[in-house]
Design a protein that fits this description.
Chain lengths: 282, 475, 588, 316
């Protein structure tokens, strides 16, 4: 638009989000990688004499209730946090999106059966799922990630289905059909790109939820085994010190927030990349 | 930053914030410490009770005699006792209650399994026969198993209480809140409060929040000591710490490798710094222990730990035993406090050379099944909160799997010997258990109360299975 | 052609000076000057993609964000330059003082709102209607004015329940609602049959007369422009190459492009040798001329199966397409729980044959079921009654088997009436055009796409762009290119050239005619332009109110329309008022 | 209409039955002996065996399932193995709390999410839009306990405006209920609002490229009004979808908020019953969840058709 209320874009924004998101995430990944070879302190051993030191001094970000260096914990915790978050989102996307698209394209009984199944999974609490999985395969970060992924899959399915329904009402789908293209083609070439915005948002939200849920689960003994540090667990452990040592919640909270922010920026960036009309909007 | 907040309770009422909620009102059927904590002494009364100093004192029985063989106890019941529905207490009620013990599904009834007969000598006198002399009998009688129920009034105990105590349960919103009202005809005179409300909080922060907003007048048995600093310097609240029967025990499976080797058990005790564990897990609250005897027990002895923190010695012991880096599995219940203990212990053990595979197990369902029932463990941690529970080291079927015939003999002699020698015998027994490194006794947990300045009479120690609210008053 | 711009700003309604519109990749409109006086009717014609629509958008400050405009644009009742005015002020002008009819009516309407409400909104948002109810009544009134049948019912319809032409009239109704001082019409009648077109143009003319409205009328239909406009401007490549009074420009075009345009507008003159000159060998048998009652003809021939008239019957050989008693009904609108209004018969009792290689034009009233018929024949919709048989594939009411549909679609290509809606906004043109190519390598697909795009007059740099970056006519050509890329046996085209300027139109029609000759293409061709149909098709089918009413050889039907509706159509066909002196006088 | 309703109902019952079987099978895998949990630390093997028999755990799985489902079909959720009380009563009171909490949180969430998401989309090139977007992104990362504790600290402890927790007692009426509900609903609603606002933003961005918005502006609507009148409805389907999903998730997912605010809803009931291995009660909770989710999604599917007439026809 040319009206002066909308000053012309200062710079081409396409990619701005993408780049900053990618940079943030790369930093997180880098931190996780560095922690494999170096952390300021060993994040595992407990030192009762150095508990709950405030930030500053020898321990830049202070120490936690076990007397472990918070900075080192954050660095090492990035690994499991990324692992669980990313694999849960992958599992959920790979399960949920195809189901949702298929249901939305086929409609009829396929839709009914799939969606009722999805409803049942949605209703089945993730906690129970994790317990069951832990019972069958043993509790670990992997089972927790898979269980969280399965737990999140229904929302991917429902969101993809609703997007698919809308896309399928468009005439270009009819055009594809008349071009003798089957459902697979329509699903991958028309539906997927047109619902990608929502799926990307869904993935970035699901990541945040998975990271927080992993904390709750591992605290109950269903997730990562202590003493392996994770941001979620740090948050959980810091909870009861909120009043007297708020930094114990603050730092892991910030770490999660920054990662989620990076992911969302990346998501928005990808979204804009995939959307040729993004520059046309006002 | 505790601000003064007006109490939300009406005059003559007091609201208490507790943590663990009873599953029902019937401790003849349901296990769990929460039911007797709420009901014993407050609603239900046994013949005797354990006072706040740990001593057995008369309750429904005004006096009793023991025969020379020490297997026959004759109790004289207090005059003028009535149940909450107005029916007077007689010896028949006692007989019916004790005769019903085998029907309990709650295993605590087993504490009185020594009773072979109960008979009503007169309406006010009842005689109890034991199979063998037992110096622990009166203590057991003061527990929930000794409760005197109204004969014929036990049909719906799960939802309706009928006891002789100073309060009766008016309503119980399961897991949420229990309201107790004064029992008008209580034999000890009118109770101090017209109504006591017990509110249950799963989240310790919520429990203390209730205090600060006037939603509760007292929090008893707070088990998140990290929340205390905000109250400690406040004029509106008093924080008290008292003794309990609850020992934090690092259990070792004495019956199986590797802890059938006493050197490894000693290595564990040398490797773990109990003070460090106490610091991390209980913010330094808690009382150091050398064996499984709390200071309120008559046979408590202030002795130094035979295996003090000495990682160097632990390493030597491991080397002696042949494997400087033994792999052990460690099963920890999935409750915050245990996880903290577990992580700290793990850290100490690894520093001494152990390789620890720590697993957090769901409590109670999975942990009990694997460790307590299945004996499928090497190292575990748990609080043993029953009074005088050290004797379990002589139970060959118990999960400790400890086998020391000499100690067993000492215990048997003490329990059935003359009462005058009971305490001394038990003292010896406790020492033997500790020296045998049957387990690592990390510390005694403390009973922590935060009460508003208006409230008095809160139980400062937890010496029995009851949270004794009979003297609790506000204003 | 001489400087016809009025330099006295007081006397002008619209004054545009040096308008430049740029995109990231180049200049799209390059220094345009334009004045329109109150009551003046200016026609804007020119090449497809020359910047006509962009100019129209710029006048109202409606350009996309990715485009930048400079220059000076003045509107009636607005103090400053439109390009420097804020949205809030502009919004008070738009729709009240100045309104616009968009080129593509299909996507211009909100799919989730009843069209009555969309018309009423124009009144409500400027407070020109006293109440909601009054606005609703006025909306029905307006819909009636633009000749929507059963306006009460139409007002309650959602856009997708209307035909292309019906939607276009809704958009026109909304633009007329507040009797604006400036009316911009961007190809307002592309989907209207000529009778309705004539009526709508009359309404517009009436408004101009009564309210002294300034009219900017964009069209590629020179006949229409000659009928509507006083003055005309010709655009090409972002600049106005010529402007002046209609009579002058059309009779004595100065610019070479204008001359070419005028030459191309006479399809018969430009008809390539051989194309549609006579019936192709396969359909050599003469078409009987049939019409329904109510016409002047002798009725249809009976059909053994259904007992109803079969139009365009094929004798001797087996017809390639055969429909019997074909009908499509839509359930009526829901009125509360469990109650529905009368069902809509979009198409009924259609029985027709199409022989292999035949080129059948379909003309008729807007909303008469033409698009519906095409969708059924292409297997994109299921009939509610009757049967369709294409080649050896049957499409019963229950829907065809999947394998059958696949075979059917291998042979049939479709050009949709709504180019924008039928192009996936997230697909680059290269992929859109290559979509029907199965089992073809990437490189070959790219080559063939480029080739076919060139054939419809789009150059290679179109390949990497997205649909929204094109003009209406360009999008239509992309749509045609997609249909032709496979060299189909049957081409089903729904108003495929409605948005094309006459020179491009000639090019595209030649392309189709060429393919028809080369590959014995069977053609089903919907158009509201009888001239186009005559140029391309050997026979014609006339539809009205969901029925086929007449069929026969094109020449015969035009010369001797037997159904009243056909007669009206032929009579209402607009003629170029001023013929260029360079070409002989229009024959018809 | 009646037919389609009957079909829906049939599908509902069928799904519930299948779900019940799945739930039963899954839960039978869960380790832990209910009898052991009921009897506790000091139980003897004999007592355990007796307890198992009493709980019916010694019967074959099929028999256990059939008797449970038989009861369920008659609307009988059975009695709790732990308290011996009918499960239905507790389910009802818990579900009441949860329903109030979750619905009010959702209302709040939408009230926050829609303006936030729309602004973030419209002003995405400007500082305030970027800020709004960042706020909503960070909101997702705020753990519910933190939101709850902060609210309590400020509004209950410092200001004393609201109770720190708990539920109104029976008979105290609506004002007391709302008073107790306020903080937890806000705690839950804010975080959910942050989540939903992301979808609003994305959906609105998708709509903003549509031609009909230009039409709306051409009619004289300001861009903002055009977006509200035409854009929002077109963006509603994904937002509705995710709201439905989040409603389902919150039914037990609100457990952290329930704990912090001492509310006894379905989430904490589930945790309790799982911890106690009170399987009949767990199955009861899960069946209620299944029912609720089916109902929510039925409503969502019906609303699709209300919002989008094109989907209406496809579903007919
Ligand atoms: N958003 C855009 N980005 C880039 N180029 C654009 C965009 N919109 C239009 N164009 C280009 O601008 C030119 C002018 O487009 P415009 O829509 O004004 O053409 P037009 O004269 O209306 O043509 P038609 O008669 O086909 O509708 C075209 O070449 C088109 O490809
Ligand atoms: N989904 C629908 N629901 C209800 N009525 C519909 C639906 N689709 C089309 N119609 C109606 O069916 C009739 C025929 O529509 P169709 O699109 O076939 O007309 P058309 O001949 O192609 O008209 P035009 O030349 O204007 O495009 C119209 O009156 C239209 O209102
Ligand atoms: Mg145009
Ligand atoms: Mg049409």
């Amino acid at each position: 638009m040319t009206a002066p209320t909308t000053p012309a874009p200062v710079r081409r924004h396409l990619g701005g989000n993408l780049v900053s998101g990618a940079v943030v995430l790369a930093l997180v990944v880098l931190t996780a990688l560095i922690s494999l070879v170096w952390t300021p302190y060993d994040p595992i051993p407990v030192s009762p004499d150095e508990r709950l030191l405030g930030p500053g001094g020898l321990h830049l970000l202070g120490t936690d209730l076990y007397g472990r260096d918070v900075l080192s914990l954050l660095m090492a915790g990035a690994r499991i946090t990324l692992l669980v978050g990313v694999s849960a989102v992958l599992v959920a996307t790979l399960l949920g999106v195809p189901v949702g698209i298929w249901a939305g394209i086929r409609r009829g009984w396929v839709d009914a059966v799939l969606m009722r199944a999805v409803d049942v999974v949605l209703a089945f609490p993730a906690l129970l799922l994790t317990i069951v999985f832990g019972a069958v395969w043993g509790a670990s970060a992997t089972t927790a990630a898979i269980a969280l992924g399965i737990g999140a899959a229904p929302s991917f399915a429902r969101v993809s289905r609703s997007g698919t329904l809308q896309v399928m009402a468009r005439e270009y789908v009819l055009a594809a059909r008349s071009a003798n293209r089957g459902s697979w083609w329509i699903a991958t070439r028309h539906v997927l790109p047109n619902i990608s915005g929502l799926v990307i948002v869904q993935a970035s939200v699901a990541f945040a939820i998975a990271v927080l849920a992993e904390a709750a689960l591992s605290y109950l003994g269903f997730g990562t085994r202590p003493p392996t540090p994770s941001w979620g667990r740090m948050l959980q452990e810091g909870q009861s010190y909120l009043y007297d040592h708020p930094t114990l919640v603050l730092f892991p909270g910030l770490a999660i927030a920054v990662t989620v922010l990076g992911l969302n920026l990346l998501g928005d960036g990808l979204r804009d990349r995939f959307d040729p009309r993004s520059e046309a909007r006002r | 930053a505790a601000g003064p907040a007006a109490s939300g309770s009406a005059p003559g009422e007091v609201t208490v914030a507790l943590s663990r909620a009873p599953a029902s009102l019937d401790y003849t059927r349901n296990a769990g410490v929460a039911i007797p904590q709420a009901l014993l002494y407050n609603v239900y009364e046994p013949l005797v009770k354990i006072d706040s100093e740990g001593a057995v004192v008369p309750l429904l029985a005004s006096s009793w005699t023991v025969d020379d063989a020490r297997t026959s106890y004759t109790f004289t019941l207090r005059e003028g006792v009535e149940f909450a529905d107005g029916r007077p207490l007689t010896a028949d009620d006692v007989v019916a209650s004790f005769d019903a013990l085998p029907d309990w599904t709650n295993a605590v009834a087993g504490q009185l399994s020594g009773i072979v007969a109960t008979e009503a000598v007169s309406p006010q006198v009842v005689r109890v026969e034991l199979d063998e002399p037992d110096n622990a009998f009166l203590t057991a009688l003061a527990g929930p198993a000794g409760t005197v129920f109204a004969a014929g009034g036990t049909d719906d105990l799960a939802t309706r209480t009928l006891g002789t105590g100073p309060y009766t349960v008016e309503s119980y919103d399961s897991g949420v809140s229990m309201r107790m009202v004064a029992h008008e005809g209580y034999w000890g005179g009118p109770p101090p409060m017209e109504r006591i409300t017990l509110d249950y909080y799963t989240d310790p922060t919520a429990q203390t929040n209730a205090l600060m907003t006037g939603g509760a007048d007292a929090a008893l048995g707070v088990d998140a000591p990290q929340l205390l600093p905000q109250f400690e310097n406040s004029p509106d609240f008093t924080v008290t710490t008292g003794s309990t029967d609850a020992e934090m025990v690092l259990s070792m499976n004495n019956a199986a490798a590797p802890f059938d080797d006493v050197r490894l058990r000693r290595a564990v005790r040398h490797a773990v710094d109990s003070d460090g564990v106490r610091e991390v897990a209980a913010e330094g609250y808690g009382i150091p222990l050398a064996t499984m005897v709390p200071p309120t027990d008559p046979w408590y002895e202030d002795r130094p730990d035979p295996y003090p923190y000495d990682p160097e010695r632990a390493r030597e012991l491991l080397a002696e035993a042949g494997d400087p880096h033994p792999a052990i599995s460690f099963k920890v219940p999935n409750l915050p406090q245990y996880v903290r203990v577990g992580q700290t212990v793990q850290s100490y053990l690894e520093a001494a050379g152990f390789r620890v595979d720590m697993r957090i197990l769901e409590f109670p369902a999975v942990w009990l099944g694997e460790v307590l029932t299945g004996h499928d463990y090497q190292l575990a941690v748990i609080i043993h909160s029953e009074p005088r529970d050290i004797v379990q080291f002589s139970d060959p079927d118990y999960y400790f799997g400890y086998d020391d015939p000499a100690a067993d003999a000492v215990l048997a002699a003490a329990r059935s010997g003359p009462p005058g020698e009971y305490a001394a015998g038990m003292r010896d027994y406790a020492r033997m258990i500790s020296e045998g490194a049957a387990a690592d006794f990390l510390y005694l947990t403390q009973w922590i109360n935060v009460v508003s300045a208006e409230v008095s009479g809160a139980p400062e120690n937890s010496t029995s299975e009851s949270i004794d609210l009979t003297r609790l008053a506000r204003g | 052609m001489t400087a016809a711009t009025v330099d006295d700003p007081a006397g002008t309604a619209v004054r545009v000076r040096d308008l430049r519109i740029r995109s990231a990749s180049g200049t799209l409109v390059d220094g345009l000057d334009l004045d329109i006086a109150p009551g003046e009717r200016v026609g804007l014609i020119g090449e497809s993609g020359s910047g006509k629509s962009l100019t129209a958008y710029a006048l109202l400050g409606l350009l996309d964000d990715e485009l930048r405009a400079e220059g000076d644009v003045r509107l009636p009742g607005l103090a400053g330059n439109v390009l420097d005015t804020d949205e809030r002020t502009l919004s008070r002008t738009r729709g009240r003082v100045a309104s616009i009819v968009f080129q593509e009516p299909m996507t211009a309407l909100n799919p989730l709102m009843r069209v009555g409400a969309q018309v009423a909104e124009t009144l409500l948002c400027h407070g020109t209607a006293p109440s909601r109810a009054a606005a609703a009544r006025a909306a029905v009134e307006l819909l009636d004015q633009v000749r929507l049948p059963d306006p009460e019912r139409a007002a309650r319809a959602f856009p997708h329940q209307l035909s292309g032409g019906q939607r276009q009239r809704v958009v026109i109704a909304a633009a007329l609602a507040n009797d604006p001082a400036l009316l911009i019409c961007d190809e307002p009648t592309t989907a209207l049959d000529v009778t309705v077109q004539a009526q709508v143009l009359e309404i517009v003319a009436e408004l101009v007369r009564a309210r002294d409205t300034a009219l900017l009328f964009i069209s590629h239909d020179l006949a229409v422009v000659s009928a509507v406009a006083d003055r005309v401007a010709v655009m090409r490549g972002g600049v106005v190459v010529e402007q002046g009074p209609v009579a002058e420009v059309f009779t004595g075009p100065q610019h070479e492009y204008t001359r070419a345009l005028l030459a191309a507008s006479d399809l018969d003159g430009a008809r390539p040798e051989g194309a549609a000159a006579g019936p192709s060998p396969a359909v050599a048998a003469p078409r009987p001329h049939l019409a329904l009652d109510g016409g002047t003809g002798d009725g249809g021939t009976g059909d053994g199966d259904t007992g109803c008239a079969v139009f365009n019957p094929v004798t001797g050989t087996e017809p390639l397409i055969r429909t019997r008693g074909l009908g499509r009904e839509y359930p009526g609108a829901r009125r509360g729980i469990g109650r529905r209004g009368e069902p809509v018969h979009a198409l009924r009792d259609a029985s027709l044959d199409v022989a292999e290689g035949q080129k059948l034009g379909i003309v008729g009233e807007s909303g008469s079921g033409k698009s519906t018929l095409l969708r059924l024949v292409a297997g994109l919709d299921r009939p509610t009654s009757g049967t369709v048989r294409v080649g050896d594939v049957d499409i019963p009411a229950a829907g065809a088997a999947r394998e059958d549909l696949r075979r059917l679609r291998r042979d049939v290509a479709v050009v949709f009436q709504d180019p924008m809606g039928s192009l996936d906004p997230r697909m680059q043109v290269s992929r859109i055009v290559a979509e029907p190519l199965h089992g073809v390598s990437r490189a070959e697909a790219a080559d063939r796409s480029r080739e076919v795009l060139a054939a419809v007059g789009l150059d290679g740099d179109a390949l990497d762009r997205y649909p929204h970056q094109f003009s209406g006519g360009q999008r239509q050509r992309i749509s045609i290119a997609r249909a032709l890329v496979t060299r189909p046996r049957i081409l089903v085209a729904d108003e495929p050239v409605s948005a094309l300027d006459v020179s491009v139109r000639a090019q595209v029609l030649d392309l189709v005619a060429g393919l028809a000759d080369e590959y014995a293409l069977t053609l089903l061709f919907i158009s509201h332009d009888l001239g186009v149909v005559r140029h391309v098709c050997d026979s014609v089918l006339v539809m009205a109110s969901g029925r086929i009413v007449e069929s026969g050889a094109t020449g015969a039907v035009y010369a001797d329309p037997r159904h009243r509706f056909t007669a009206d159509l032929v009579a209402a066909t607009p003629r170029l008022r001023f013929a260029p002196s360079t070409t002989p006088e229009e024959s018809r | 209409m009646a037919v389609s309703l009957a079909r829906r109902l049939g599908a509902f019952v069928l799904t519930a039955l299948v779900a019940s079987l799945v739930v039963f099978l899954l839960l039978s895998v869960v380790p832990g002996d209910p009898a052991q949990v009921a009897l506790g630390v000091t139980a003897t093997p004999e007592a355990l065996a007796a307890q198992r028999a009493e709980m019916g755990l010694d019967r074959p799985l099929v028999a256990q399932y059939l008797s449970w489902v038989g009861g369920l079909l008659q609307g009988d959720f059975g009695v709790s193995a732990v308290t011996g009380e009918p499960i239905a009563t507790e389910l009802f009171t818990r579900a009441t709390v949860t329903t109030w909490l979750v619905l009010s949180a959702m209302v709040l969430a939408l009230a926050v999410a829609v303006p936030l998401g729309v602004l973030a989309a419209v002003r995405r090139r400007r500082a305030d839009g970027v800020l709004l977007s960042a706020v909503s992104q960070l909101g997702i990362a705020v753990p519910a306990f933190l939101a709850g504790l902060l609210l309590i600290t400020v509004f209950a402890v410092r200001l004393g405006w609201f109770p720190a927790g708990g539920w109104s007692r029976p008979g105290e009426g609506l004002p007391s209920l709302l008073w107790h509900l306020a903080l937890p609903a806000v705690a839950l609603g804010l975080v959910q609002g942050a989540v939903i606002s992301r979808y609003v933003r994305s959906a609105v961005l998708d709509v903003m490229g549509e031609d009909f918005l230009r039409t709306a502006r051409a009619k004289g609507l300001t861009p903002a009004r055009a977006l509200v009148r035409h854009g929002l409805r077109n963006a509603a389907i994904p937002v509705l979808t995710i709201s439905g999903v989040q409603l389902g998730v919150m039914l037990v997912g609100a457990v952290v908020v329930e704990r912090v605010f001492v509310l006894n809803g379905l989430g904490s009931m589930l945790l309790e019953k799982v911890a106690n291995r009170d399987m009949a009660a767990v199955q009861g909770v899960v069946m209620v969840l299944v029912g609720a989710v089916l109902l929510i999604n039925l409503v969502v599917d019906l609303l699709y058709a209300v919002i989008d007439p094109r989907l209406r026809e496809a579903s007919a």
